[in-house]
Amino acid sequence: MQRIEHHYINGQFVTPHGEEWFNLHNPSTEAVIGQVRLGDEQDAQRAIAAAKAAFPAWSRTTREQRIAALRRMHQAVAAREEELMEAITLEYGAPLVRGRWMATYPADVIAQAIDALQAFTFEEQAGIARVIHTPVGVAGLITPWNSNAGFICNKLATALAAGCTAVIKPSEMSAMQTQIIATALHEAGLPPGVFNIVNGRGDVVGEAIARHPDIAKISFTGSSAVGRHLIAAGAETMKRVTLELGGKSPTVVLDDADFQAIMPLVLQAGFLNSGQACIAGTRILVPRARLSEFEQVAKQALGHIRSGDPRSADTDIGPMVSQKQWERVQHYIRLGQEDGATLLAGGEGRPEGLEAGWFVKPTLFTQANNQMRIAREEIFGPVLTIIPYEDEADALQIANDTLYGLSALVLGRSTERCLRIARQIDSGRVLINTLAHEPSAPFGGFKHSGLGREMGKWGISAYLEPKTLLMHGDDGHRG
Q1: 3-class SS at 158?
Q2: How far apart are CA 118 and CA 316, in angstroms?
Q3: Which end of the chain is more exposed for a tag (fewer CB within 10 A), N or C?
Q4: CA 3/CA 38 separation, integer angstroms
Q5: Long-range pairs for 428-433 at CB < 8 Å and ≥24 separation?
């Protein structure tokens, strides 16, 4: 039983003022494997004060000084890969391939922030004016449980690259990962107060961050409902916000697609991160004229998708993170059937042979329409919905008929046709015949999928305000 009882404030591991303990579970067994002591509003205020005190000096550091600090962070985090991998498997239940990606990603995003910082233009000319990009102040960084260590490192490295200091409120459900990252970042030897980490509930520590006047910027990844609340809570103090929220991403299968060839992409996109991914392609749009053919190929492929023990090499889908999440997914599987969709594979309950653990059968609905709740609401589990369409215009109408707009996938033989359709999809990112990721490109969503962008130069810009300088003698009238 691991007990995590310290927060990281002003360069030290400290005992929090908050006294509540939160149980950590192994989602594969449902057993309690640890406890984390949660902070309260006083802990949040202490962390914010430390970050505020550290901001003037850090904001004046040079590009070279920040790069040196980020390189130390990268080295320290990379050295913890195996430790992270074990924590991810134990407290989150990611299957081996996904878990390995999640264990390497935190160091990777720091390296990507270094690349973005090296190329970033902090000063530029605009007519006769000089425009300098200046850090906004103290950033509040709030991260989710579905890739906690990676989100901490991505948001923190970007904020530091811009010259901001930070207070991090990670998911309390991922406290083991947080502890490993905090220890690594401490070893990197950044000045006290430049970053601070407070474990705590969103409605306590997150709320204190969202309302505190000394927090200039919020970066949040999580649900659209919480994102809307953060906008409202931060409005009184005019906080800048970057929100990466929910999704109901369409996978548009064109009528010329080779179903056998594309099916691995369709299922990988839908079952990404055991279905617990904001970008998951959970709405599969298929031409009605070829629907039965697609259903046959999909059902056959789904027979090879395994949900179970994350430590097993042939497991594709791990458990849901919590009992609450498992029950949510079961609720939507029932809803799909009640609303008239046809269950092609999967269904309620645990996969055969599993008596414990928050495991879900990989589930595929068909003969659905875009007004059903399984087609409109984010389920956050391995539940996919096939929606037939009549023609290209109908496919685009269905793809865009959603509150969300984070990611999309277009699959077909003609690159030119795929690109034409991709341009018409309302989404922050559209993939064409690939699931590749480009870290130097902006990431974020349209509509209820968020505000602003992360990654690359766009990510750094989100922590900066442009300041215009005009000097006497630079007015174009010099002799």
Answers
A1: helix
A2: 38
A3: C
A4: 11
A5: 428/453, 429/279, 431/269, 431/407, 433/262, 433/265
Residue 387's CB: how many other CB atoms inside 10 A? Answer: 25
Alpha carbons 157 and 459: distance in angstroms, whole number: 10
Question: Which structure tokens are listed for 2?
Answer: 């691991």
Q: Which residue in the block uniquely carries the two structure tokens 């968020």?
A: 450
Ramachandran region, residue 93 (left: φ > 0; alpha: ψ -120 to 50; beta: rest): left
Q: The pTM is what?
A: 0.97
How much of the chain is in helix, strand and coil states, percent to nearest 5?
45, 20, 35
pLDDT per residue over 337-389, tens digit each?
999 999 999 999 999 999 999 999 999 999 999 999 999 999 999 999 999 99
Q: Assess contact for 74 and 114: CB atoms under 8 A.
A: yes
Distance CA 366, CA 384 (A): 9
Residue 265's contacts (CB-CB under 8 Å, 6 or more residues apart) are 409, 411, 433, 434, 435
CB-based contacts of 172, cutoff 8 Å, min separation 6? 22, 36, 38, 199, 200, 201
- Tell me the catalytic residues: 244, 278
CA distances from 193 to 262, 339, 469 (A): 49, 53, 30
Dihedral sign for Cα atoms in the order 243, 266, 376, 381: negative
Tens digit of pLDDT for each residue in 48-62?
999 999 999 999 999
Backbone angles phi, psi at 386, to 5 degrees: -90, 125
